[in-house]
């Protein structure tokens, strides 16, 4: 089968013929979303944290089709793949927080993923039967789950600032708007910000200064928020960011651009602030975000590429040219 194979840090993926998987549940891959996480892996940003054996087929945001009947699934069923497989026994697995299991295996990281014609899935418990266009469905499996998890517990009364305009932020914006929440969104990319406006953002702030906090303080009609959600996580987005929170406000960090959170502790104590990291989400989050999609409340903004053009897609993503999610079609 044809696959895009990751062989060396910092090099383009290699398009080649590889052996088809034989074990587990075999899916014919219909579409796989390209995530910023893939770029972090390819560039070696995470090599001190996650051991990735090469050659490896990446791709952890997969929609596929069942090839052989298995359990409740029939040949031809279309499925979204929840990508994290835990040990099933630890306290994180028992809560459904498989992404935090010490022994987690992620499809497309620790085992071969979706940038290929076929993929092997170790368990039917991570499959969700779905209907619809696979190219549009794919982003739900990773960006959608993360977006859903990142805005959990936020209600109509809350004032929210989203930082960043990538696929996850634009999905989170739509989920918040479906709940009637008032949202300010800040970023550098004006094309993506106008997309955010079109999707219902109440206020957009073009971050002209390096520090997002400074841009908000000088350009936004609002000064304080109940939630600030950072989908970038860089030095520029994190510096002074806690000053933008209301009392008992919460900072959620989703992006992984390696910035440092440097903050006066008295600010945290005297204002009762909370700080949380958000990594992926639960299988239930996948069910919920799929339901929002089915009800027409969110658009996934898929931008399709052929498998052969995956390196072009990677380039476009790195240069900020993709409004939404690049989807690789084998
Ligand atoms: Zn990802
Ligand atoms: Zn576990």
Poorly predicted residue ranges: none
The first-to-last residue Cα distance is: 10 Å
Largest sheet: 7 strands, mixed
Distinct small molecules = zinc ion
Total beta strands: 18
* CATH level 1 class label of the largest domain: Alpha Beta
Number of helices: 11
What's the order of the H and E elements? Answer: EEEHEEEEHEEEHHEHEHEHEHEHEHEHE
Rough shape? Answer: globular
What would your notes on this structure say?
The protein has about 325 residues and is α/β, with parallel strands linked by helices. It has two domains: about 1-140 and about 280-330, Quinone Oxidoreductase, Chain A, domain 1 (Alpha-Beta Complex); about 145-275, 3-Layer(aba) Sandwich (Rossmann fold), CATH 3.40.50. It is about 25% helix and about 25% strand. It has helices at about 35-40, 90-95, 135, 145-150, 165-180, 190-200, 210-220, 235-240, 265-270, 285-295, 310-320, and strands spanning about 1-5, 15, 25-35, 55, 60-65, 80, 85, 105, 120, 125-130, 160-165, 180-185, 205, 225-230, 245-255, 275, 300-305, 325-330. It is globular and about 55 Å long. It starts with a strand and ends with a strand. The mean pLDDT is about 95. Bound molecules: zinc ion (ZN) (2 copies). One zinc ion binds near residues 35 and 142. InterPro entries: ADH-like_C, ADH-like_N, GroES-like_sf, NAD(P)-bd_dom_sf, Zn_alcohol_dh. GO terms for molecular function: adenyl nucleotide binding; anion binding; oxidoreductase activity.
Please give a quick description of this structure.
GO terms for molecular function: adenyl nucleotide binding; anion binding; oxidoreductase activity. The chain has 330 residues and is an alpha/beta fold.
